[in-house]
Specification:
CATH superfamily of the largest domain: Spore Coat Polysaccharide Biosynthesis Protein SpsA, Chain A
CATH topology of the largest domain: Spore Coat Polysaccharide Biosynthesis Protein SpsA, Chain A
Helix content: 10-25%
Organism: Glossina austeni
CATH architecture of the largest domain: Alpha-Beta Complex
Shape: elongated
Protein name: MobA-like NTP transferase domain-containing protein
Catalytic activity: alpha-D-glucosamine 1-phosphate + acetyl-CoA = N-acetyl-alpha-D-glucosamine 1-phosphate + CoA + H(+); N-acetyl-alpha-D-glucosamine 1-phosphate + UTP + H(+) = UDP-N-acetyl-alpha-D-glucosamine + diphosphate
Distance between the termini: 103 Å
Largest sheet: 12 strands, parallel
Subcellular location: Cytoplasm
Mean pLDDT: 96
Low-confidence stretches: none
Cofactor: Mg(2+)
Strand content: 25-35%
Number of domains: 2
Structural class: alpha/beta
Radius of gyration: 30 Å
Length: 456
Amino acid sequence: MNTASQKLSIIILSAGQGKRMFSAIPKVLHKLAGKPILQHVIDTVLNLPAKKVYVVYGYEGQLLRKKIISHNLSLSWILQSDQYGTGHAIQKVMDQYEGDNNDQILILYGDIPLISMTTLKKLLCNHAGFNISLLTAKIDSPCGYGRILRENGLVVKIIEQNDISETDKNIQEINTGIMVVNKKKLHTWINRINNNNSKKEFYLTDIVSIAYHNGYIINSMQLKNTFEIFGINNRFQLMYLERLYQQKQAKKLLLNGITLADYKRFDLRGTLKHGKDIFIDTNVILEGNMIIGNRVKIGNGCKLKNVIINDDVIIKPYSIIENTYLDSNSIVGPFAHIHSNSKISKNVHIGNFVEVKNTIFGNNSKAGHLSYLGDANIGEKVNIGAGAITCNFDGKHKNKTIINNNAFIGANSELIAPIIIGSDATVGAGTTVTKNINNGEKIISRIRQFSILKKT
C-alpha cells in the first residue's frame, strides 16, 4: 500500500494503569531516554500520513494532555474508564471515529516505545490488497505473548497466553499487537467479539478468527528486529529497554565518528548533532537538543542539556551545563555549573566550583575557582579571583552586574548589584563593592588588619 496515497488513521492503545509499575502516574508517562514512553510512539508515527491519531487512555487524561507533545498531529483522546480489554477499547474509538469506511487503521500500543518508522511503513506497504495485516515475530521465549496459530501456512487465530493449551504453548511465532485493518471490516468484526475467555475480557485479537471464518485471508509480516516490540509492564523492563535503547544510540555515534570511552556508560536523552573527533568519557549524560562541534572533549560524569558547543572546547569531569552556548577553545570545569542562557565566548576558562547563571563571558576572560557569577555581563580579558561573587538578588529583584574589559576582580570580592565595573578597573581582594567603579580605578574596602595583644 502506498502510504502517501492511502487514507490512514492510527489508534494507540494506552489505557492500562500499569499496576506492576507501583506508581501514581500512568505507565505510559514513565520516561525512557528522558521522554514519556507514549511520546516515543507518537514521535515515531509523526511522518506517517495519518489524518487523525486516536489515543485511548484510562485515567489522568489532563496529565496525559499536559505531558504529551502532539507536534502537528491531530490527536483525539478517547477515555476508556471501564477497561474490559483491548477489543472494548477499539469499540470506544469506533463510537467516536471520524472518517470513511475505506480508511485503513493502524493499531499500536503506547507501551512499545522502540517500534520503528521503517517497520510501520513496511507493514502498511505489505497491507496492499488485504483487509487485515498482522505484525508477528518469532522469539525463543514466547511466554507472555499471544501465539499465532496457522493451518497450512495461513493465519487462522491468535491465542492469548492465558487461554493457551499445552499443545500450543511452544509456538514461537507471537502476536506483537500491531496490525492494520480496514475500517469497515474492523467496525463489523469488533462488534462480533465476546468475552468468553479466562479473563472475561473483550480481546481485539479475536477479530482474526472472525475474519478467517468469514473467508478473509489474514496477511502477516514477520519482524526480524524483535527488540522493537518489547513492551514495558514493570520497572525492570523499563530499565532493560533504557539500556538497550542507549546502547543502540551509542553504537550509532561510534559508527559516525564519536569516541565513547565506554558505550555501556553513556546516555543520550534527546537529540545530538555533532562534528568530528569528539571524545566522550564515561558516565556522561546528554539531554535535550545538543550540538557539539569538532574536537570537543567531555570528561567523566558530566551532564549537559540544551548546550551548543563550538570547536575545541574541553569540559572537565563532573561539570553540569544547561541552556548554554560555549564558544571555541574554552575550558570548563571540573565541577563547574553553567546554566540559564549563559554565553561563554572564545578562550574562556570557567574553573572548578564556579557557578555561572544567565551571564555573558567575553573572549579570553576567566574565573578559575569557587565563584558565583549570576546575571552578569563580563567583558574581554577579565580576571575573576577565587571566591568572588555577584550579589544579584536583593530579596525581590535579580539585578545586573556589568564588568568591562580588562577588569581585575580580586579574590573573595562581593559585587553588590546593580553595579558597573569600568574597563581596566581593579578590585582589591576581600572588597565589598557597593558603588560603580570608573575606568582604570583601583579600589579596596576591606577593614584594616590589627592585632590584639594579650595582657601579661
